[in-house]
Amino acid sequence: MSGHHLSVHTLLCVVFALLTAASNAGAAVLQRKAAAQVPPERSMHFSLIADLIRRKVWLAGIGMVVVAAVAQAAALATGPIALVQPIFIIELPVTLVLATLASQNRAMISRLPWTAIIVTTVGLGAGLAVAEPSGAASTAPDSSWVIALIVTACFLGVLITAAVGLRGEPRAALLGLAAACGYALTAALMKNAMADLGEGATQFFTSWHIYATAIVGVGALFLLQNALQAGSLVASQPMLTVGDALISISYGVTLFGEDLRVGWWLMPEIIALVAIIAGCVQIAKSPLAAEPAPLVSEPAPTVQ
């Protein structure tokens, strides 16, 4: 493959990943608006989804999720998971900006933590440029998948068990991390499913990857709804975005043999990661982000 061809694929991968991040950010704002209206006693029950599905704003959020899923599939088909998923870190600042715009109070825009947003964005871009993720394989053997699924199930079990015994922001953060793990696993399964599709429709529909993608994706969506319902958007969103990126890189390296620059490149990579985390923390400390009220339009009407 020529360098020009490779660069075109990389560019398409980045464009589709950015579209995915923007769609997910819009979905998070709409879903948070709907979830905030649901009674607390419905947390961790399927009645939560039954309540949400009657709300038009939540259905609009699901529409954005569908757009994001299609864009993500396209991104994973054209690039490594270690490149695609970290780009989703940009969801956090985009979510905050969109939520502020949705509040219909334009004066709040000037109160946004623009320095933290810029630090997070620049840190992400620099980190990816330095790490230069590259894909070695588009599929993973079933033996590797078995190990990955067992480890993931244990990790999710610990997070969910701990979250059930908590309330408020800590619960939202843990469930946000659990949802991140679910979405990272969904992306890994989706990448393998897209490789199956490249082998033909028969391979695609007779392989287990596409069905596992759907099941895990629904489970991750359920965890996210509970994370959004448990606390403010900013409590769950940092865990969701940063957790998704780091766990996805782990899947990319262990399952698909993807490569990241190491050696002396580790130092600028660590600096970029610290910048990203610092930016996310500053966004979380912002009074505008810390209060759930600006993140939803007031009053928040219930759609019957």
| Distance between the first and last residues' Cα | 55 Å
Report the strand count: 0
Given helix and strand content, the structural type is: mainly alpha
The biggest beta sheet, please? none
Coarse shape: globular
**What is the string of helix and strand elements?**
HHHHHHHHHHHHH
**Which whole number gives the mean pLDDT?**
82
The low-pLDDT segments are 1-5, 292-304
How many distinct folded domains?
A: 1
Rg: 19 Å
Query: What helical percentage do the residues reach?
Result: over 70%
Compose a concise summary of this entry.
The chain has helices spanning 3-35, 47-52, 56-78, 81-84, 91-102, 114-131, 142-164, 168-198, 201-206, 209-230, 233-256, 266-285, 287-290.
Question: How would you describe this structure to a colleague?
Answer:
This protein has about 300 residues and is mostly helical. The protein has one domain. About 75% of the residues lie in helices and about 0% in strands. The chain has 13 helices and no strands. Helix 11 (about 235-255) packs antiparallel against helix 12 (about 265-285). The longest helix has about 35 residues, at about 5-35. The chain is globular, with a radius of gyration of 19 Å. The termini are far apart. Mean pLDDT is about 80; it is low at about 1-5 and about 290-304.
Descriptive labels:
globular; disordered N terminus; mainly alpha; 304 residues
SSE blueprint and pairings:
Elements: H1 3-35, H2 47-52, H3 56-78, H4 81-84, H5 91-102, H6 114-131, H7 142-164, H8 168-198, H9 201-206, H10 209-230, H11 233-256, H12 266-285, H13 287-290
Helix pairs in contact: 1-3, 1-5, 1-10, 3-8, 6-12, 7-8, 8-10, 8-11, 11-12
